[in-house]
Amino acid sequence: MFEQIKFDLKKNVWSSTNVVIFAAFLILLLGTFFTAIGTTDNSRAKLTESYANAITNLGASIKALKKIKHKTPAQKASLAHKEAESPYFSDLTMANAGLISPVPSGSVNDLNKALLALAQFGLRETKAGHGADLELIHYDGVPLETTLIGRKKDVRFYGYLTKHKIAEIPANKANAPAAAYLPFQFLYHVSPLVILAVFIVQLGQLFTSEKREGTISFMNNLPTGKLKLLTARMATFLALTLPNFALACGVTYVITGVKFGWGTWSYPLVYSADGHTASIMTLGHYFTLVCGMLLAAVLFLMMLSALVSLLSGNLGVNVVLGGITLLMATSQALGQGPLRAVAKFIPSGYFDFTKVILHQTSWPIMSIGAGIAVMLIWALALYGVCAVILARREQL
Amino acid sequence: MLEVKNLSFAFKDKPILNDVSFTLADGQIIGLVAPNGTGKTTLLRLLCGLLPSRDAQIELNGVSLQKQHTAFLKQLFFLESSNHLYADLTVRDHLLYVKKMWQSDVDVDSTVAELGMQSYYKKKIKSLSLGMKQHALLAMYIISDAQTMFIDEPLNGLDPTSIQQFEQEFRKLRAAGKTLLVSSHQMDSVGRVCDNVFFLKDQQINDVTNTGQDMMALYTQMFMTEAAANV
Questions:
Q1: What gap in Å lies between CA B23 and CA B1, rounded to an integer?
Q2: A-interface mutation test, from B101, B102, B151, most A Cβ less than 10 A away
């Protein structure tokens, strides 16, 4: 087996495909970096604009309610709630102004505290059944959550920032420090499905090259089991492509770190696993989970590609079938229709791991660990099918 | 000893072999001769399991192709063409790999020296001429040390000196007890080195013992007379 892996590595290590795949990973990961180069970061201005929009909307609502001469009890109550919210926005405006002033007069934590106070007010109001009267801040690039769990998440998030005295990094910040840049790429800029698509191309190339180049007849005449040959090919793929991806991540981390600073891996992401409780996950934890889920997804796709290669040596067939499994991972396929019912039991349900980790999928899923297990069990099952096919072929 | 019984094969509606049986004894060189497209390579592919042969019995020294596939292949070496070598790997890579996979004791360096391949031993296959690739392929056969060797058109692209060298190597392998089934169109060479010749005609094998007769005349009689009559 080791000899076969060594030979397979020799065959493939200098292939130009590896360079192309590395370049593809790098372009995907550094896309935002190149956008940020030579442009001024306006994420702080966008954040200020979001606050200002919310304050303007709140003011307009209060004004409109006040104009009504004969208010219903509900309108009176709504006005009272909105007026009660107004001071929190005033504090927020003051704290933010202190930060963005040419001569800064406040600290990051002043803004964090103002945002936390506003979030706590929002949570109290929502719990009391007045959530509809709240004026919520709509952040650029982040979907607005109007539910109770949305308010709980706000409190948890700003509470963490306040406690650790960390400045909020806007989702649209192109020049985010290295530790935030990579996770943010997966969170906001590059779909994991696109990353997996690159792996699928590499897999298709590797598993069909012998048939395309005619060298498969030599492989099939080797005095060793065909399953061993296929397993060695899988090991070769993992030995080539995973380091390739890791290198692209490493290069991205270093380049963004040198240019934008290193940042902290303890920056928080907020999520809810059960829809009731808000929890905090650090970027470090998040990125570790991303890597774990990516590995499981790649293992599944590798088995799929290997199985398809036993049935067809056509690169197009291999890549298209891999692509179909990726399309099955979209909300259009899994969020509705018959696949929704089985989504939690199929690997495609866990391919969009950014959403899976933060429990933001529009289809039912199990826990992250169970999701990894689903992908690995399917991978094992496909490996079993490969073994059966090859055993039958050896007896023909 | 290779024993083949009841071997039949067809590509869709084109029959290639019809209930063929034969035996190859150890220490023999058997020529496999037929016009292009008759099924020489197909026969070789069938004999090593690259094509299915469900109803046939194929045994090499008592080891069944169907039942003990890996053990069967351990005693056999067949690589269809030097075009099927790995273009980006060196001759050295190929030879060392064959030595490991067939667990052979044959010394690589002495084989390379014997075939005069030192100058391109470390070169990539894609930079070699057809003749050099044929030498590399022959070296792989020798280094495999397999008991039975199927060799498909080994003399293509070789100059007369190399042809003599190849024939000499085939004789050495026979002397070492190896069995060689060699497909070829070079009838003069077939006449010089083969003990028996399998003429593949009408989906059957006509086994002719080489007694020094004119092989080209035999070929003409067997294939070209009929072809001329059909014109």
A1: 7
A2: B101
pLDDT in tens, A363-393: 999 989 999 999 999 999 999 999 999 988 8
* Record: contact A218-B79, CB cut-off 8 A: yes
Consecutive H or E run containing A334? helix A331-334
Contact between chains at B66 and A14 (C-beta distance less than 8 A): no
| Sheet order of strands, B204-209 included | B76-78, B148-152, B179-183, B29-33, B196-201, B204-209
- CA nearest to B169, candidates B228, B161, A195, B86: B161
ipTM of the complex: 0.87
Report yes or no: A386 and A306 within 8 Å, Cβ to Cβ.
Answer: yes
Alpha carbons B24 and B79: distance in angstroms, whole number: 19
A280, β-bridge pairs:
A270
Summarize pLDDT for A92-130 with one digit per residue, the tens. Answer: 999 988 888 777 777 889 999 999 999 999 999 999 999
Residues of A in contact with B102 (CB under 8 A): 223
Q: Give the span between the Cα atoms of A51 and B111, in whole angstroms.
A: 81
The rounded distance, in Å, linking the Cα atoms of B13 and A68 is: 90
Question: Amino acid identity of B82?
Answer: S
The model's pLDDT over A179-230, given as tens digits with 9 standing for 90+, comes to 999 999 988 889 999 999 999 999 999 999 888 888 888 888 999 988 999 9
The two structure tokens encoding residue A112: 């964090």
A2–B contact, CB cutoff 8 A: no
Whole-number Å distance between alpha carbons of B20 and B56: 9
For residues B140 and B119, give the distance between their C-alpha atoms in angstroms, rounded to a whole number.
17
Q: What chain B residue is nearest to A9 in terms of C-alpha separation? A: B89
**Partners of residue A222 in chain B, C-beta under 8 Å:** 73, 101
Taking one residue from A and the other from B, the number of pairs with CB-CB distance under 8 angstroms is 61
Asked if the C-beta of B60 comes within 8 angstroms of chain A's C-beta atoms, the answer is no
Query: In whole angstroms, what is the distance from residue A307 CA to residue A326 CA?
Result: 17
Q: Spell out which residues of chain B touch residue A4, defining contact as CB-CB under 8 Å.
A: 101
Q: Which of A4, A10, A217 sits opposite B80 (nearest CB)?
A: A217
CA dist A168 and A108 (Å) reads 9
Looking at chain A from residue 155 to 214, which residues have their Cβ under 8 Å from any Cβ of chain B?
213-214
Q: Which of B197, B187, B188, B213 is nearest to B30 (CA)?
A: B197
Q: Chain B residues with CB inside 8 Å of A221's CB?
A: 48-50, 73, 76-79
Contact A221 B97 (CB under 8 A): no
> With an 8 Å Cβ cutoff, are B76 and A221 in contact?
yes
| Kind and range of the H or E run holding A270 | strand A268-271
Q: Which positions of chain B have pLDDT values less than 50?
A: none
SS3 letters for chain B?
CEEEEEEEEEECCEEEEEEEEEEECCCCEEEEECCCCCCHHHHHHHHCCCCCCCCCEEEECCEECCCCHHHHHHCEEECCCHHHCCCCCEHHHHHHHHHHHCCCCCCHHHHHHHCCCHHHCCCEHHHCCHHHHHHHHHHHHHHHCCCEEEEECCCCCCCHHHHHHHHHHHHHHHHCCCEEEEECCCHHHHHHHCCEEEEEECCEEEEEECCCCCHHHHHHHHHHHHHHHHC
Q: Which residues of A touch B52 (CB under 8 A)?
A: 396
The C-alpha atoms of residue A303 and residue A258 are separated, in whole angstroms, by 38
Q: Which residue of B has its CA nearest to A229?
A: B101
Q: Torsions phi, psi of B205, nearest 5? A: -105, 125
